[in-house]
Amino acid sequence: MEFKVEDIISKNDNFFLIAGPCVVENEEITKTIAEELKSICDNLELPFLFKASYKKANRSSLSSFTGIGNDEALEILRKVKDEFSVPIVTDIHSAEEAVWAANVADVLQIPAFLCRQTDLLLAAAKTGKCVNVKKGQFMSPEAMRFAVEKIKNSNNNNVMITERGTSFGYTDLVVDFRGIKAMKEFGCPIVLDCTHSLQQPNQTSGVTGGRPDLIEIIAKAGVAVGFDGLFMETHPDPKNALSDGANMLPLAQMKELLEKLLRIRKAII
User: Fold this and answer.
1) Per-residue pLDDT for 63 more than 60?
2) Within 10 A of 181 (CB to CB), how many other CB atoms are there?
3) Distance CA 121, CA 126 (A)
4) Closest listed residue to residue 104, CA positions, set 176, 30, 160, 167
5) Which sign, positive or negative, has the C-alpha torsion 4, 136, 56, 195?
6) Separation between Cα atoms, residue 269 and residue 265, nearest integer Å
7) What is the rounded distance in angstroms from the CA atom of residue 167 to the CA atom of residue 170?
8) How high is the pLDDT of residue 11?
């Protein structure tokens, strides 16, 4: 059955969660994270999509981890999908990748730096899969309508936008919550990336920094202003994660945070 993002929007009054590790590191840890998140979300009656990149094409340093191999990583994602009955979200980086990633993924995610790449957006749209476009750190909320139009004009209305912060100087990001009003007018679900929004990129070390201590604050604000979904990268041991560990939420903290966020959601609807 084809995944439609509207189906989880209308399922109940809760926000939906996109969560998982930054990248597939190996089968064991990927399944461990998926199983724990699935259990938490089932108990909280929270719609859940599992996210992990099969490779990381955008890395600061040549020495940074990029993946275990595309075929192996996608096969692990297929196993997660089948074993835990969860939709899979993964990044694509070229038009060619859209076709074969769509054999596994339910949602093709367009990285923020690539959100204006017409060939990539059209290729993703033409697969018929849901397309999640991450708003570029350099883009105004209003300008994201053109990315949405590219997909919808390809006869694919199954699209969502993810806010992931705006560049603030060279090494920081901020979230402008005013942007949700403009993006809501595009007629698609809007997601807040609570972890990448707290990145501190372009560090002289060649490794992106972050402020994971602010995840709860950003997430609470996102729920309060009405984001349809939340995106959070998580790992049992962020300090030893192979990618983006500096801004991940420890997996052990996920349940408590989601419970808090659901109380806020209940209070505002």
Assistant:
1) no
2) 12
3) 9
4) 30
5) negative
6) 6
7) 7
8) 66
Q: Is 242 helix (H, G, I), strand (E, B) or coil?
A: coil
Q: Are 76 and 24 in contact (CB under 8 A)?
A: yes
Distance, in Å, from the CA atom of 198 to the CA atom of 147, rounded to the nearest integer, reads: 24
Mean pLDDT for the stretch of residues 69-82? 95
Q: How many angstroms separate the Cα of 211 from the Cα of each of 47, 168, 169, 174?
A: 26, 14, 16, 11
Nearest by Cα to 18 from 183, 193, 262, 257: 193
Q: Which of 11, 6, 1 is nearest to 159 (CA)?
A: 6
Position 164, amino acid: R
Q: Which two tokens stand for residue 46?
A: 């929270």
Mean pLDDT across 240-267: 93
Q: Where are the domains of the chain?
A: 5-268
Interacting residues of 58 by C-beta distance below 8 A, sequence separation 6+ = 93, 111, 113
Q: How many other β-carbons are positioned within 10 Å of the β-carbon of residue 118? A: 11
DSSP lists the bridge partners of residue 161 as: 133, 190
Contact yes or no for 50/19 (Cβ under 8 A): yes
Could you write out the DSSP letters of every residue in 196-252?
Answer: GGGEE---TTSS-EE-GGGHHHHHHHHHHHT-SEEEEEEES-GGG-SSSGGGPEEGG
Q: Architecture of 5-268 per CATH?
A: Alpha-Beta Barrel (3.20)
pLDDT of residue 61: 56
pLDDT band at 32 (very low <50, low <70, confident <90, very high): very high
The pLDDT of residue 243? 79
Q: Is 64 in contact with 12 (CB distance < 8 Å)?
A: no
Distance CA 211, CA 199 (A): 7
Distance CA 191, CA 230 (A): 5
